[in-house]
Amino acid sequence: MQDLPNNLEAALKYRVEAGNFNLAIFTGQSDFDKTHPSIVIHAELGQETPINSGNFMITVNCELRQSAETDDLPGFRALARSVYGQLMSDALQTELSSEATDLHVFGILNRQFRETIDDTHWLSVLTFDAYCCRSDL
User: Fold this and answer.
1) pLDDT 10s per residue in the chain (137 long)?
2) Residue 125 to residues 53, 68, 116, 128, 133, Cα–Cα distance (Å)
3) Can you give the pTM of this predicted structure?
């Protein structure tokens, strides 16, 4: 079932790429240095609900980062609104299901947004849960 989060990450990457933003897009977790601005999309497989159904809750974390050295916080916030606008559609589950390979998304739940500013980076994070299954079940 580990391919399920990977398929979801790929579909979300496709959604962000469709916006033609000037930023690097990464999926999964890695220790590589990221260029800025960048977004890292990570999906983590959760609990199968109900048991033996093939349906899983996947927690998605989208982190948009930019170096604070640019001194353009309003520009960063505008970029975050635009990027996350690609992921806030009421029909996101349908769009992801049609764009992904071997993935059906039943619903998007628990969307949360937070922003962090420190001395070196601005970080904007969108998290949500996606209720999914493989489409070839």
Assistant:
1) 568 999 999 999 999 999 999 889 999 876 666 677 899 999 999 999 999 999 999 999 999 998 888 768 899 999 999 999 999 989 999 999 998 888 999 999 999 999 998 778 899 999 999 999 998 65
2) 31, 16, 8, 10, 25
3) 0.90
